[in-house]
Specification:
This protein is 30% helix and 26% strand. By secondary structure, it is of the alpha/beta class. It has a 7-stranded mixed sheet with strand order 9-8-7-10-11-13-12, sandwiched between helices. Strands 3-4-5-6 form a 4-stranded antiparallel sheet, with helices on one face. A two-stranded antiparallel sheet has the order 1-2. It is globular, with a radius of gyration of 19 Å.
Length: 309
Amino acid sequence: MAGENRDQETNAWFGERLYDHVAQHHRIEEVLYRVRTGLQDLIIFRSHRFGRVLALDGVIQVTEGDEFVYHEMLSHTPILAHAAMGGTARRVLIVGGGDGGALRRVLMHRSVERATLVEIDRGVVDLCTRYMPTIADGAFDDARTDLVIADGARFVAETDQRFEVIIIDSTDPIGPGAVLFTQSFYADCRRCLAPGGILVTQSGVPFLQPDEVTHSFQRLGAVFPDVAFYGAAVPTYFGGLMTLGWASDEPDARRLTADALRSHFDAAGIATEYYTPEVHAAAFCLPAFVQRLMCPSGAFAPRPPNWGA
């Protein structure tokens, strides 16, 4: 790994380079670390409103200020749904998620006996643990954690383990994360799921990344009998609602009411800042334009209106 590069310059701005025509900027209070790992450009800086921020290849991945929204919905939703369907999520696989936020939430569930986190870049784990420790909050030191530094696609293709829940906490479908959006990867994930298991995956901001929803729906749908999306409002991922992909062999797992989830949430005894049983149930109620993006028949326009034309 390249050496540390601390930059004390203030009043600089970080401009995200995810889209060609729109951008978000964060004022940099302090650059804490900047490095080129073996796989990607990484910067950790401090902002006034969002706290410490991690960006890879010019794209913000996680912030201390609002990571709870994304990680709670990515983790608690499938685990509690599985419980409400009469199952027990004893073994959970996280692909990506080197910041440890999803791992931390998974381990809040006492039912989890083993949480396997597969991260391709050791540098992400080490630097987030050092510079953003509140996100993982010691999760990597938990005896139930199995940290595997490897290619996630290769891991699911080769492992003989089975998991009740699989969480794909990936970057956008560019660079090292692109393989985690393919049909062959989803097929390998299904092979690794125990009966009644649930897979969830980040699927982008549909207003600005409509193809991610359409392509994920088609590729997951070619592999799983039941595919859907649910939403979360994550301020960092600007552009409106963020969609999270959902796939299972049990359709009723995504149709649970808040009342059906409440006893399992209460029994788990976990403290949350965003997730509630009511938010869980409502998250599967998607806006019409997102529903149109999911339509594989082409009967609807595959992207929202171009209001800027």
